[in-house]
Design a protein that fits this description.
Blueprint: E1 4-8, H1 13-24, E2 28-33, H2 36-46, E3 49-52, H3 58-72, E4 77-80, H4 96-117, E5 126-132, H5 143-162, E6 168-174, E7 178-179, E8 192-193, H6 194-206, E9 215-218
Parallel strand pairs: 1-2, 1-4, 2-3, 4-5, 5-6, 6-9, 7-8
Helix pairs in contact: 1-6, 3-4, 4-5
Length: 229
C-alpha cells in the first residue's frame, strides 16, 4: 500500500527535500505550510497535494490534520520541520517577551504538533520531528538558537520516554548546514543537500525499527539512509 505522508513546513528548504524524496518513492504526499503561494511549486513539480495551515494552537493543528487526512483518507507518517526565521543577537540583549515568542515558534509549535498528531497517526506509522545541531554547541549571537534546539530535543526525548504504544517517534538532529534553494548559491560542497536530508527522513519513515534511538543525528553524507551509531 502506498504510504501517505504529511510534511509540515514543506515550503522550507528541509521540508522541500522531504517532499521531493517522498514523491520520488511514489508515496502520496500532503505538503503543508502557512503560505499557500509557497506550496504551489511543490504541487507543480512533485505532484504533492497541498494544505495551508499552521501550528499556532491545538485547534489550528487539528484543522490542518483534518484537511490533510481528507486528501488520501488517512495519514501513515508525519514529518514536522518548522522553525522561526533566525536572527543574530547576544543572549542578554533579548527582551523576555521576544525570547518567549521565539521559543513559542521554535519549540511550542513542535509540542502542539506532537500532542495533536501522534494520537491520530497510524499506529504502525512513524512521526519525525526535525531539529538542528546547535543543540550541542553555542555560536556567539546565536545562543537563542541553541536554547531552542536543545529544548526541542529534550521535549522529543521526554515524549518518547513516556509513550508505551502508537506510531514510532523519532527526532532527527541535522548537524550540518543544508544546501537548499535558499542557500544553494553559497553552499559549501560538504554541506548536505536538502534532498539528501529528505532521503534520510524517508529511510526512517520506511523502517523506523532500523533507527531505534529516539534521537537520530545526521552529520555527513555517508550516513544517508543508515542509522547513527
Amino acid at each position: 500500500m502506498t504510504k501517505r505522508v504529511l510534511v509540515v513546513g514543506a515550503s522550507g528548504d528541509v521540508g522541500q527535500g522531504v517532499v521531493a524524496a517522498a514523491a520520488a518513492k511514489g508515496w502520496a504526499v500532503v505538503a503543508a505550510a502557512r503560505s499557500g503561494d509557497k506550496l504551489t511549486p511543490l504541487q507543480a513539480e512533485f505532484g504533492a497535494s497541498v494544505v495551508q495551515g499552521d501550528l499556532i494552537s491545538e485547534e489550528a493543528a487539528s484543522a490542518l490534520w483534518s484537511a490533510a487526512e481528507a486528501v488520501h483518507g488517512g495519514i501513515d507518517a508525519a514529518v514536522v520541520s518548522v522553525n522561526a526565521p533566525n536572527t543574530s543577537r547576544q543572549m542578554l540583549e533579548w527582551i523576555p517577551d521576544e525570547l518567549a515568542s521565539l521559543v513559542a515558534h521554535n519549540v511550542l509549535t513542535h509540542f502542539i504538533a506532537a500532542k495533536t498528531f501522534l494520537p491520530l497517526t497510524a499506529a504502525s506509522g512513524c512521526y519525525v520531528g526535525i531539529g538542528g545541531g546547535a543543540a550541542d554547541f553555542v555560536i556567539p549571537e546565536l545562543g537563542h538558537l541553541s536554547l531552542c534546539q536543545a529544548a526541542l530535543r529534550m521535549m522529543y526525548r521526554a515524549i518518547g520516554c513516556e509513550r508505551e504504544a502508537g506510531p514510532a517517534l523519532r527526532q532527527l538532529t541535522i548537524a550540518s548546514m543544508v544546501a537548499g534553494p535558499r542557500k544553494r548559491a553559497v553552499a559549501d560542497p560538504n554541506w548536505l543537500t536538502n534532498l539528501e536530508v529528505g532521503r534520510h527522513v524517508c529511510a526512517i519513515l520506511a523502517e523506523p525499527r532500523a533507527f531505534p534511538d529516539a534521537i537520530q543525528r545526521l552529520q555527513s553524507r555517508d550516513q544517508i539512509g543508515r542509522p547513527a551509531h
